């Protein structure tokens, strides 16, 4: 068992909890590593643990009978895996696959449900998160059906930025194709378009967002809509827009000088 003191603020759902209830909850956590491509839970499998990521990303993936896969949601430091337990359902509806390696705080399902019964502040906050997650899953479904690949790719890269809390991260075109439910050539064309406009740099899976505000304009409205939904229920998810604009100007200048 690891001490929670240094990392209590790393997961946003846990950061606002205070007092004795917080201490009792944190005493039961254990810190675990999230390894890229690891399947934490399969579809229709019983949920054994809940996870509160601190610096990794977990993708929620739906698989069809023909083998095709589509990402319907993702969880980073802003959320948790195993939220159906809040509703009393102990079975996973999707595959949970680690997209980006990192760490998470883990709690056994039975212990988590006991804390939900005893900790009113935790239950209220996670009820809000459940509302946000359900709304975002519905929005992702509509986005996949109605919006162009370029706009959806821009949205997904912005989500990655928020979840890793940085403008540089690694994601392959193959993984992006699975996440967006399109052929790899579609991801290639969309990424090249964003790169040619100076919004991103993308080389061998290494992504650098050069101009976040411009990338937001290239994204569909679903990115802002999902963030607004989270903010109304749980508080700000990302940095103020004026700070991102200042940082984007600096990055684009540095990128031009390096090339």
% residues in beta strands: 15-25%
CATH topology of the largest domain: Jelly Rolls
CATH architecture field of the largest domain: Sandwich
> Residue-averaged pLDDT, rounded?
89
Topology pattern, helix = H, strand = E: HHEEEEEEEHHHEHHEEHHH
Question: Describe it for me?
Answer:
With 259 residues, this protein is α+β, with helices and mostly antiparallel strands. It folds into two domains: 5-120, Jelly Rolls (Sandwich), CATH 2.60.120.10; 147-258, Orthogonal Bundle (Arc Repressor Mutant, subunit A). The chain is 48% helix and 20% strand. Helix 5 packs across helix 7 (184-196). The relative contact order is 0.13. Residues 1-9 have low confidence and may be disordered.
What is this structure's SSE topology?
Blueprint: H1 12-15, H2 19-27, E1 30-34, E2 39-41, E3 49-53, E4 57-63, E5 69-75, E6 95-100, E7 102-108, H3 109-118, H4 120-146, H5 149-164, E8 168-170, H6 173-180, H7 184-196, E9 200-203, E10 206-209, H8 212-218, H9 222-234, H10 241-258
Helix pairs in contact: 4-9, 5-7, 5-8, 6-7
Pfam family, one: HTH_Crp_2
InterPro entries: cNMP-bd_dom (IPR000595), cNMP-bd_dom_sf (IPR018490), Env_Response_Regulators (IPR050397), HTH_CRP (IPR012318), RmlC-like_jellyroll (IPR014710), WH-like_DNA-bd_sf (IPR036388), WH_DNA-bd_sf (IPR036390)
Domain Cyclic nucleotide-binding: 13-126
